[in-house]
Give the backbone structure.
Amino acid sequence: MMMGHRSPEAALKARASTHLCAILRHSRSDSIRARASSRPDPTKSEEGPKSPPLIVSLDDVRQRAYAALLGSAIGDALGATTEFMMPEEIKQRHGVLREIIGGGWLRLSAGQVTDDTQMALCVARSIAESGWSLTDIADRFASWLKSRPVDVGSTCRRGIRRYMVHGTLAGPPFEDDAGNGAVMRVAPVAIASLVDTKLMREWSIEQAHITHNHDLSDCACILVGSLIQLACIATSKLRLLQLVTNLTTDVASFGFRPYRRLCTAYVVDTMQTVLHYFFTTRTFEDCLVGTVNQGGDADTAGAIVGAIAGAYYGLDSIPRRWIKKLPPTIVEEIQSLSSKLVAGSPLSAGRPIPSFQDFSVMKGKCEKGNSKWK
Ligand code: MN
Ligand code: MN
């Protein structure tokens, strides 16, 4: 660390000021408690040394974590209707799809969820019951695969089979692995590791590599994990956009402006769709409706953006009529799991919230994928 020219106290102050205050100064004040009575002056730059330490309300974090997992299941159930359809086809058949009605190529009942939610639940249950154990996660994936799920992505199937046959917890890097299967189940990892950015990155990638080993998939996991963590501590959308802008300088492929209107099994297209709809809408409902009416890998994009938007807009923003469509057992389980994951997180153990910079470093990775999809 290059701080020899400063007194330790000055260094500490400088660190504290680039600390969460930088993140929180744009945040909605109702969900944040400041230990000191004065809030940081938003007009001051990060140099301002007087920012008081800030903490988040664990109740609020728990609600946002619940909304993230619930939002993800809702995005899956809503988007399953339009999965693999073209936007024009969706328009012809549904006008604008705004309701959870099931159907789709899987002929689902209304509110039925698919692999995206089921795999995320495997991860969530595993962490809640066993702490961090890759073997336990892989075992749950294996039992799930054996239960003849309604849908399984081909890369996920291959990875799980490899584990079942050879016991391998990570496949070798593979150019076909730049799909959505790892990032669609990253939300529970982001919540369980709140807000240890290093742990979130490690865990996200470890769970990803059970089935997907590709830089672009890794990057998507880290980006989505970072957005969920920041949203869970009530970070403003301006700040989230700043994070994405910082990271997409490194990961040029995820740049979503101008939006190419593609949502496919390729993680780059899906990430662009997720980012486009999250940043160009103002409510949970509009964000999800926009995303799933784009078609393509609609349930997966819905599941990913539903987690981010759920954490960001919070529980009250999720339309009741959508929650009512989900099986009550899933809603109850998601509530209980999300509160267990938050309770076991470093945040609940009193870990201080890291600086915004800690969230925005992804240098030296993912600048170019070697994907056949490009
Ligand atoms: Mn699915
Ligand atoms: Mn899908």
Observations:
- The pocket of manganese (II) ion (ligand 2) is lined by residues 83, 297, 299-300 (CB under 6 Å).
- DSSP finds 17 helices and two strands in the chain.
